[in-house]
Amino acid sequence: MIRHQGEYRAERREAMRGGAGSVLIEHFWEPGPELRSPTRMCARLTLEPGSSIGFHRHEAEEEIFVIVRGEAEVDDDGRTVRLRAGDTVLTGGGAGHAVKSVGAEPLEMVALIARFQ
Fold first, then answer.
1. List of E strands, the chain
2. Residues ≥6 apart with Cβ < 8 Å to 71
3. Average of pLDDT values for 23-42?
4. Which tops the pLDDT comparison, 33 or 43?
5. Averaged pLDDT for residues 7-35
6. Looking at the predicted structure, is the pLDDT value of residue 33 above 90?
7. Within 13 Å of residue 101, how many CA atoms lie on the same side as its CB?
8. Long-range contacts of residues 28-32, Cβ cutoff 8 Å, at least 24 apart
9. Given a cut of 90, is residue 23 above it in pLDDT?
């Protein structure tokens, strides 16, 4: 199956997880009808400078972020780290995280959330 740029279902979430600004989420593939694995999200997230996703935990799932463009400040379960394109984050099993766009350009990340089986 192939899906081209511009064909993704998009949504904008304001104050995501208590964060600042908004997050544009472009869903590459939808859980259930398209993804048969225990996946909750497979998407590109775009945060304008200053926007953020508030701190939250992943209990029975794992989340992977791949930074594609821009700069992020990530709270990785209490440790703050600055990330750039090519860097990744893995969290889950009760660990938490928050992400803030801190560069001059928008932050783009690919996000994959999978449930434990």
1. 9-14, 22-27, 39-47, 52-57, 61-69, 71-76, 79-84, 88-92, 96-101, 107-115
2. 82, 83, 84, 101, 102, 103, 107
3. 95
4. 43
5. 97
6. no
7. 23
8. 28/3, 29/3
9. yes
- Return the structure tokens found at 57: 């935990």
Using alpha carbons only, what angle is made at residue 40 by residues 47 and 38, rounded to the nearest 5 degrees?
150
Tokens, residue 12: 């904008």
Confidence of residue 117 (pLDDT cuts 50, 70, 90): confident
Amino acid at 19: G
Beta pairing, strands 22-27 & 9-14: antiparallel
Average pLDDT for 49-57? 97
Max CA-CA distance within the chain? 40
Instruction: Measure the CA–CA gap between 73 and 102, rounded to whole angstroms.
Output: 6
For 51, the token pair is 């926007």
Q: What pTM does this model have?
A: 0.94
